[in-house]
Every structure is written in structure tokens, then in C-alpha cells.
Amino acid sequence: MSNLELLDDDLIKEKNDDLLKSLRWWEKKRVLYNLILLGIIIFIIFSRYDAFLYFGVYNGIIGSILFLLVANFFFCMGWILEILIYYYFKKGYQFIKTLRMFLFIIGISISIFQTFIMYHVALIQTPF
After folding, report:
1. What SS3 class is residue 48?
2. CB 44 within 8 A of CB 116
3. Half-sphere exposure of residue 82: CA atoms within 13 angstroms, side-chain side
4. What's the DSSP call for residue 7?
5. Rounded distance between C-alpha atoms, residue 8 and residue 12, angstroms
6. Dihedral (C-alpha) 9, 12, 16, 17: value to the nearest 10 degrees?
């Protein structure tokens, strides 16, 4: 094996370490993200429990699980976007750390808003 192989390149190792740090950061934040959305869903369900029963508990739970799965899919867009920006724009790691927090805050804000809108629209249509 020669020292010129890509696996031995220190620059490649450094970039890989940055990407692994990024993925670890996003996966730690996924727990917080899910807890916030789950808390909002539970709050809405208990505040409109009569409407929730009207739709059926089973349907409500399945709908909430599906909603959380879709929300987690879109959560993945945060770290995918970060990796793309890191790769194509060759920005430094400090810029990426700032961008990461910005993407997380924007993403969670949109998710909270979407959660309230989705459950509000679904529960407001009940005859109560």
C-alpha cells in the first residue's frame, strides 16, 4: 500500500471526521425534535379529547405515528442539506456549525407550526 491512497490522506480523514460530527449532532437533536413534536401532539389531543374520541383512538394514534415518521423524514433534510453545502461550497467547519443551528431552528419552527395547523384543521372539523 502506498502513502498516496485516498484512505491515507489526512485531508480526507479530517473531512470524514467533520461529517461524522455533523451526523452525531443531528441525531442527538432528533431526540429533542421528536420530544417537542410528541409533546405538542399530546397537548392538542388532551385539549380536544372529545374530538379525538370522535375520530377514534386507534385512528388518532396511527395518524400521529405516520405524521411523526414524515416529520422525521423531513428532519433528515437538515443534515443532508448541511452535507451538500459543506461539499459543494467548501465552507469551513465553523460556518457549518452556525448553519446547522440555523437549519435546526428554522426546521423545528416550521414543524411546530405544521403540527398545530394539521391537528387544528383535523379537529376543528368535528361536530363538537
Report:
1. coil
2. yes
3. 28
4. G
5. 8
6. 60
Structural domains counted in the chain? 1
Each as own residue / partner, the long-range contacts of residues 20-29 (CB below 8 Å, 24 or more positions apart, any chain) are 22/79, 22/82, 22/83, 22/86, 22/96, 22/100, 23/79, 25/100, 26/75, 26/78, 26/79, 26/82, 26/100, 29/104
Q: What rounded mean pLDDT belongs to the chain?
A: 81
User: Phi first, then psi: what are they for 118, rounded to 5°?
Assistant: -60, -50
pLDDT average, residue stretch 31-57:
86
Residue 29 forms part of a structural domain: yes
Domain encompassing residue 95: 22-124
pLDDT 10s digits, 117-128: 887 777 666 665
Higher pLDDT, 93 or 20: 20
